[in-house]
Amino acid sequence: MAQSEFRIGIVGVGRMGANMARRLQELRYPVVAVYDCDAQRAKELASELGCMAASTLADLAELTNTVLTVVSDDGAMRKIYAPGSADSLLRHATGRLFINCATLSPALQRDVHTLVEQQGGQCLEACMASSITQARQGTLYLMCGGRRDVFDRAAPLLKALSAHLRYIGPAGEAANVKALVNMVMNANTAALAEGLGLGSALGLDLTMLREVFAQTGANSRVLETDGEDMQQRAHDCYFSAAHAAKDSGIACSLAKEVELNLPVAHATHEQYRRLVAMGKGEMDKSAVAELTFKERLTASRAD
Questions:
Q1: How far is CA 146 from CA 21, 111, 163, 171, in A?
Q2: Chain segment 89-108, per-residue pLDDT in tens
């Protein structure tokens, strides 16, 4: 599709969705409507962009021909694609293209593809291996699953949002890959937190330790993004601990389906579940260090 042919609606305008909307408007893609379960948040973004804040999902679908969804989890996804509901994107699915960007279970991605196609629409998963800054800059890493012709149709729009765009395969395949990406990333994050936590308990200079890690086999992308934050206790959210728990849980479920034991993934999942249970789920995933620094654990217990 040519740029002028798109009429874009965005469902879910939190940190990622809102910045994707800003990026598209900046590139003169017509964003005509936004929707969020937090109606005030949608109204504020709509005012900023000069578009409509749709009052229902069905209204948004009716106004648009291309819908990007950026929702939190499987439960939210089921709600927005609920068959038979008066307020569902499926009410006006015929002839529309739905691009689902959240990290969801592969089975649900396949189910949504089927539901949309049964209503005469087209569907694509575009899983994001990036964060808020990349959403705003249009430098996302997007992994796509669905029919190849649908991917080709959506490619101009997806290129506007990404620095790396990759077609993975049929529906659910990109979701499989994204689950593994986040499983490994979360395990790396938890391992780094343990290394820095033990270093702190041993009285080591953590700045020196991070430099040594960066120059040896302990180096990782997570060290670059999260190491200093762990040291400084700067856990402003770019990728939440709650999402880390969800995504590691998806990977552990996939492992169970194929009867594979992944002890590191399970241990990581438990760490992030602990953070969520402590009320720290909205902190950045780097907050897993709060569970591995001895003096922080002692302070928490004292509180």
A1: 23, 12, 20, 4
A2: 999 999 999 999 988 999 99
